[in-house]
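Before relying on records like the one below, remember that each one covers exactly one chain. Contacts with other chains, cofactors or solvent are not represented anywhere in the record.
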Amino acid sequence: MKDYFEQTVEKTMRLIAIDSVQSAPCPASPFGEGVAKCLDFVCETAKEMGMSVNNEKGYYCTCDIGEGETFGILGHIDVVPYDDDWSANPLGEIRNNTIFGRGILDDKGPMMCCLHAVGQLLEEGYRPNCKIRFIFGGNEESGWQCIEHYNQTDIMPARGFSPDGDFPVINCEKGLVGYEIFIDAPSRLISLNGGSRVNIVMAKCSCEIDGVLGESKNKDVKIQIKDGRTYVTAYGKPAHASTPDKGDNAFWKLLEYLSDELGGEYTVLRDMLCHNDGSGANVKLSDEKSGALTFNVGVADTNTKSGKLRLLIDIRHPVTYTKEEILERLKKSLNTQDARVRNFHDPLYLEKDNPLVQKLLAAYNGVTGENLSPITIGGGTYARALKCGVAFGPLFPGMESTIHQKDERVSIEDFRKMYEIYYHAIKKLLFT
């Protein structure tokens, strides 16, 4: 019998080699040529295992095996952007027993592990006790249009999991909301531009100020003076917005510099916006079920006809609060009525004793020898699309997360352990 883990590595590297950052629509996919190629590659791989496949106009693809009630395994093949600051090839490289590449953890690698685990079980002679459906989405990072389209064209499985979070098993995901807020631009600000995605901690932010300001004491803040104007560029460290404390927000550094130089309105903005817990904007909230709110200004710019400063703020809120309640708090604290919910995913919560939670937990603990309990995250996964769904891996407890960061990576040892966990979980749940 073929070595399915080795084949998983080989196929994953081929999938990572396809740049699937969302790009201009093309005939094969509304999300760009890279997404289209990834969906085609996944379909070809699943067909080799005897699965029936469907590429739905480049929005998503499904790969099915078995009959009866449908159990879904949901993930995505689109990825967030990467830059030139990697020490390895972002389109895939194995070095020092470590796999590097955008998507190796989020979400190409774990989805390929699950797919090949099913292939191995089929080759070993096991038979599915239900219909297993893989759903590979093409737009998870940029709006979930793939899932919206799926719900318009097909029936979502009632149960399932998404390998797009953390081990041991996630029974609770906080509410995930992107807010768009316009506020009066502070005096002397000519222009400002920072960030690329609301769900990424801002890595760079620049502005133009009327007048001559002083040098910065922070080495990450660069100053240029030209024609009586000051050009400021601040550099930070990107991270996933669900864990903003792991990043270093360039917008904060910019505001801190401007506050030191100009005070006034800039100090007010700094005090309101430069807190990961939302305390400056009166949204420092928490509950017993899901923990504390997180707050990230992911995009800030003045590139609007209104002449105002636009903020895109990512908030992951406790399950006992609502997005509407938080919006009203933001309007009041930021002194504006020009604010709206731009995108959202409602919270997910399953009781810890739910059978799906317990079976997945047993598979994880069985492979690792640990005795862990379900956890809560601020990330948003496709598990929210299911009536009874959870996120299951791929990050191990204590493992450094490089998701949405430079040098996204996983050791070969951890990737093999990940594969074994998915193999045993799928066998316990879905095969006889």
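The mean pLDDT is 95.
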